[in-house]
Amino acid sequence: MIAVPGFQGRRVAVFGLGRSGITAARALQAGGATPILWDDGVSGRMQAEAEGFAVEDLTTADWSAFAALVLSPGAPLTHPKPHWTVEKARAAGVPVIGDIELFARAIDTVPASLRPRVVAITGTNGKSTTTALIGWVLKQAGLKVAIGGNIGIGVLALPAPAEVEVYVVETSSYQLDLTTSFAPDVAILTNVSPDHLDRHGGMEGYVAAKRRLFQVMTPDKVALIGVDDDWGWKTVNALNDRRLRVSTITTRTPPEFVDPTGGVPVAKIAARLPDQQPAFDAGRFIIVDATGGKLVADGVAIADLAPARSLPGRHNAQNAAFAYAAARALGVPHDAAVEGLMTFPGLAHRMETVAQLGAVRFVNDSKATNADAARQALSSYPSVFWIAGGVPKDGGIDDLSDLFPRVTRAYLIGQSAEEFAATLGDTPHVITGTMEAAVTAAAADAQAAGGDQIVLLSPACASFDQYPDFEARGEAFRAAVLNQGATPLRS
Fold first, then answer.
1. Distance between terminal CA atoms of the chain?
2. Cα–Cα distance between 333 and 203 in angstroms, integer?
């Protein structure tokens, strides 16, 4: 655990007792603060009381006595309207912060010569895979690494700085909205597409939250920006205006390496199809140095990703490019960084091959909670038996229509089933309702089709109509697949 100093002997309100809230309370207490906890749910309050924390109804508390409010990232800061604790804190002049901000303050108190370096990753899609991949590469290079944040372990539950050389932290837009001093050594923005717009008041607010990752960066830090979307290029331009060290990551092919905003990145790393490669996203990708318009450094590509079985498709080529660039920025030798990419075992629930039944592979992409994430998986295979549905995001699957020809048949589950059926139109589909029924039908159809086939769970939806989270949904898929008699695998 990371003890949080700076609040010794002071009362700190903590609202929301999920993973981040309860770990924040423990870290504050370890640093000498008196955390005062509250949650709208009885179970959260009971857990806090069982651990010996002070639990007080914050609706009637004296807010002038609090040094800060540590807000759960699940509670709205600004939209659709500020949470009632935020309104009370602001009325009393109490700062509102989150667990990432507490982490930043704790790390800043470590003497510079002993301070671990921090890699932080945000973005709409790809951030979890990129986080796990960077952590893997650094560990394989022999570094003491701790991975957490919005993935896996809450950031304040990670080992203390004395035990760590590099923290690799995934950060959500909700968490970044609650930061003021977070300045990672390597800051990564994978990509930006519409998501969580209700919580940020629209696209501009969402992008502004993501850019908070760079708000206090100094020229000794490194920014890695994905520029396959316009928001990435706009971010590059803004950081260039501040004369920061910016490198861009792209999967575009020439001549699109040219920066359309006129910015001048320090370096460009590109993932692209080799010459003569069929132009679809399931192709073999190579990582190259595109600095100064070059496609390779000294005539040699950085890495050929063909042997990296857990990194298929264009989006994973981008993730690999981020991981290579981050590792090199931290001083990992070229050969060690490439070796780490080749041996990465993959991330659970993200294009994870869970089992095989004859020539049929079952791929768990439950983490694809919006259409843009589902696009990455659909683009990686020439044809699929597609399981989709849940709680739809704005726009549903309308933007995936260009990929419908790759869908041999779709199996629709959850709240969005009728809506998705209408969108699919003439694309073969069936409303199955449940995961078990979808897997049973898809397995039978894929076997009947003969040859190598893919059954893909890539829902393009949130899970909350049928499951508590995407992990539970992915495990339900795995269980249903194994019930078909499939042999469990790990890609």
1. 32
2. 39
DSSP state of 410: E
Query: What is the spatial distance between Cα 171 and Cα 208, in angstroms, rounded to a whole number?
Result: 14
Q: Does an H or E element contain 64, and which?
A: none
pLDDT for residue 283: 54
3-state secondary structure of 318: helix
The residues facing 399 across adjacent strands are none
Would you tell me how many other CB atoms lie within 10 Å of the CB of residue 301? 15
Q: How far, in whole angstroms, is CA 35 from its chain's centroid?
A: 29
Read off the pLDDT of residues 134-165 as tens digits, 9 standing for 90 and up.
999 999 999 999 999 988 899 999 999 999 99
Q: Considering the entire predicted model, what is its pTM? A: 0.81
State the DSSP H helix or E strand holding residue 209, giving kind and residue range, or none if neither: helix 203-211
Q: How many CB atoms lie within 10 A of CB 43?
A: 9
Both tokens of 87, joined, read: 């309104």
Cα–Cα distance, 72 to 14 (Å, whole number): 8
- Listing DSSP states for 9-35 in one string gives T-EEEEE--SHHHHHHHHHHHHTT-EE
Q: What is the edge-to-edge ordering of all strands in the sheet holding 303-304?
A: 145-149, 166-170, 117-122, 186-189, 222-226, 245-250, 267-272, 286-289, 303-304
pLDDT at 242: 86
Q: The tokens of 83 are what?
A: 């949470």
